[in-house]
Amino acid sequence: MDNEQLVRTVEAMKKYAVEKHVPIMEDDGIEHLTALLREQHPQKVLEIGSAIGFSALKMAEALPDATIDTIERDQERFAKAVGFIQGSGFKERIRLYHGDALEFDLELLDRSYDAIFIDAAKGQYERFFEKYEVLLNKGGVIYCDNMHMHGMSAMHIKEIPRRKRTMIRNLSAFKETMINHEGYETKLLDIGDGIMICKKL
Ligand SMILES: C[S@@+](CC[C@H](N)C(=O)[O-])C[C@H]1O[C@@H](n2cnc3c(N)ncnc32)[C@H](O)[C@@H]1O
Fold it and tell me: Closest ligand 1 atom, CA of 53?
């Protein structure tokens, strides 16, 4: 594998994300996530919300034996992800799918993921969980980023901008669901913007 190719691709992705306002994970968030994944050592990872393929590429780099399947609904971002991954040196281990994850045909995916990373529309996390958790192996882990919603999850509802309230309510409800879920052991880690890890029992 050509490390220069990887470094060049990561730099180009970051530059594109800034120029086009694409919300990719920040350095500390991705470092924490990949550290957790290295500890878990999954062979098959599913990501909901690829954007331009940045976190998929960083996960593939951190997990040399793993394959990463990732779904993105935005056509332009998906096309960009395809281009970036093609030139990254990691195209054999990253499969990019275009579509709305809430309507996606599960038959197109594997049935046995060891890890699922949810990083798409924040207000829909519970729906993603309900749809995709059937694909997760026992002992597998679901990772969710941005659980603190840039500090908004700790604010009183009236302090939160009106247009974000439903999303914050949904995210809090999802947190509660997972904490009380008998089939999962859930931890909320106070790192980055809050990473929730839910292990399937
Ligand atoms: C925060 S970005 C993902 C960033 C990416 N994981 C990274 O760090 O490189 C969220 C992405 O999820 C996509 N998305 C939102 N809802 C989706 C859905 N229902 N199905 C598929 N993709 C979705 C958005 O278009 C957006 O590109």
Answer: 9
pLDDT at residue 152 in the model: 63
| Residue located nearest, by CA, to atom 11 of ligand 1 | 49
Segment 87-113 mean pLDDT: 96
* Model confidence, pTM: 0.94
Ligand 1 pocket, 72 CB below 6 A? yes
Q: How far is the CA of 63 from the centre of ligand 1 (A)?
A: 21
Rounded to an integer, what distance in angstroms lies between the CA atom of residue 20 and that of residue 14? Answer: 10
CA–centroid distance, 118 to ligand 1, in Å, is 9
Amino acid in position 139: G
CATH number of the domain residue 134 falls in: 3.40.50.150
Structure tokens at 95: 């499969």
Q: Kindly state the helix (H) or strand (E) to which residue 70 belongs, with its residue range.
A: strand 67-72
**Domain range enclosing 72:** 3-200
CA–CA distance, 45 with 113 (Å, rounded to integer): 6
| pLDDT the model gives residue 53 | 98
Q: How many angstroms separate the alpha carbon of residue 72 from the centre of ligand 1?
A: 6
Task: Check pLDDT > 90 for residue 68.
Answer: yes
How many folded domains does the chain comprise? Answer: 1
pLDDT for the residue numbered 111? 87
Q: State yes or no: pLDDT of 159 exceeds 80.
A: no
